Amino acid sequence: MRRLSLKTEVFLNLLLVVTVAMGLVAAVVVKLDQRERVLARVESGKAILSSAAALAADKNAQDAGELISLFRPVIRDAGFDAFELLDGTGRVVAGGQEKDAPGEELLAAAQKAISTQTMYTRTTTELFSLSGPKVLYVAYPVRTRDGLSLAGVIVAQLSPWAAESLARLKVLWIYLFFVGVVMVIFGTHLLARLVVEPVKRLIELAGEFREEEFLAFDPENPVNELSALLDATKMMVTRLREQRENLAENCVSLEEALKDLKDAQREVVRSEKLASLGQLAAGLAHELGNPLGIAMGYLGLLKDESLEHESREDVLARMQTELDRMDQTVRALLSYARPAGEQSEVVEVGPLIKETVAVAGLHKEMKGIDVEIRAQGGLRVRVDPEALRQALMNLLINSAQAMDHRGAIFVKADLRGPNQRVLIRVKDTGPGVSEEDAPRIFDPFYTDKPPGKGTGLGLAVAMRLMEAAGGSLKLENPGGKGACFVINLPGP
Fold first, then answer.
1. Residue 303 lies in a domain
2. Most exposed among 143, 155, 201, 378, judged by the fewest C-beta atoms under 10 Å?
3. Which residues, in sequence order, are CB contacts of 110 under 8 Å at separation 6+?
4. CATH number of the domain to which 408 belongs
5. CA–CA distance, 414 with 486 (Å, rounded to integer)
6. What are phi and psi of 112, to 5 degrees?
């Protein structure tokens, strides 16, 4: 919705204010005119009735009719419609209305004047309203020569005055309307010149302001609210300029700090790579050196032609064992260097765990180990199924080796967290992982098992596989009884 301009809003508000003010002025003027007219009529009635009361003091009650006849022309000339004399009981002693008037109102006015012995006036309805008759009653106490207390009441119909007053009100409204229009137009022009135009100019200058410029603006009246607004704007622009300069300096400092941080990060990564490379080389030399030396020793024995056939077969079998050990080490190292995860698909977690546990049960390390599976139904993840099987297999074999054929493994899978991540926990009843060893258990070639019992790559390969699938593998309870490894994978 399009907003009105400041000048239009000023015009509309002035129009509203002037219209309301003119309406109130017209209403007040008309009410004052009506009041003055009624007061003039009341004074006229008071003068007539006081004269009648003076004459009645020299007459008896039987002569009241002569008094009415004497004052009837005067009543008509003064604009009244009726003149009556009533006693305290409400009985009409003399007189009669030429126009119908409410009897109850006339009686009430007479009784009030007799009881208070003062002049009393009243109207039948709100003065000059548009509903019902509008009648004025003026009652005055009268006492005759024979001591009878009466009340003289004269009645005036005010309806013709109401019509005339409304007509005058319409004329006054038209006059005030044109005066108001002129005032609104002149006021709008004056306010536009003194306020709207300077504000528009200030807005234009603020919009065209550039950092290298100075906000120059000179209003017509230099000492007013616009001048204060200009000063505040200049202060704001000055603070903005200072803050922009500070921000530019901070940005330069942050860029330099970021550059230094990236250089340091590259150095750390380079150092980590070198350390990892050295560790891999040392571990590989150790894992391959021993079986290679043994195989070379067995090869030297085979060169002895005097070696018996059965001994030769035993040496060949032992040599094959050492070569298989070297092959296992090389394959594990290749799995660590190039983890799977490219053939991802939506996998049902529960059946895959059961299949992996069944296959792992054939391994000699799993002899004497009980495995309990508690997997929530309907769990699905997007992952390379072979990678997940390999990771679970490594965790199961690792737990079995830690318990030495005695204990149990618990595999549990469920949904956790607001992002509905799938958590697979593999917990054993073994001795657990100490807090000192916990930071290194996922390092390649790290193992606390005796020689020949492992390559130290099982947990490292499992963690790399899960990270490649967009998940993670962590030790949940370092230093606790029994190790608990948690695989965290996103849903499908």
1. no
2. 378
3. 84, 86, 90, 139, 151, 153
4. 3.30.565.10
5. 11
6. -65, -40
CB 409 within 8 A of CB 482: no
Beta strands in 18-168 (DSSP E): 82-87, 92-95, 120-123, 135-143, 149-157
What is the extent of the structural domain holding 474? 342-489
Give the largest Cα separation in the chain, rounded.
Answer: 184
| DSSP single-letter state for residue 63 | G
Query: Phi and psi for 436 in degrees, rounded to 5?
Result: -70, -35
Answer whether 432's CB lies under 8 Å from 440's CB.
no
| C-alpha 491, offset from chain centre | 32
Residue 221's alpha-carbon distances to 193, 195, 229, in angstroms, are 11, 10, 13
pLDDT along the chain (492 residues), means of 10: 70 81 78 78 84 78 74 81 79 61 72 85 60 70 81 80 71 80 81 74 64 49 60 76 86 88 67 52 68 81 78 83 77 54 79 86 81 88 86 87 86 82 90 82 71 67 84 83 89 76
Helices (H) and strands (E) in the chain, counts: 10, 12
Residue written as token pair 């709207």: 196
Q: Provide the CA 377 distance to its chain's centre, in angstroms.
A: 40
CA distances from 216 to 64, 193, 204, 225 (A): 93, 19, 11, 17
Query: Residue 476 falls within a domain, yes or no?
Result: yes
- Provide the token pair at 150: 């009466």
Domain total for the chain? 2
Q: Is 95 helix (H, G, I), strand (E, B) or coil?
A: strand
Cα–Cα distance measured from residue 91 to residue 85, given in angstroms and rounded to the nearest whole number: 9
- CA-to-CA distance for 166 and 168, rounded, in angstroms? 5
- Specify whether the CB–CB gap between 58 and 145 falls below 8 A: yes
Instruction: Return the residue matching tokens 């698909």.
Output: 345
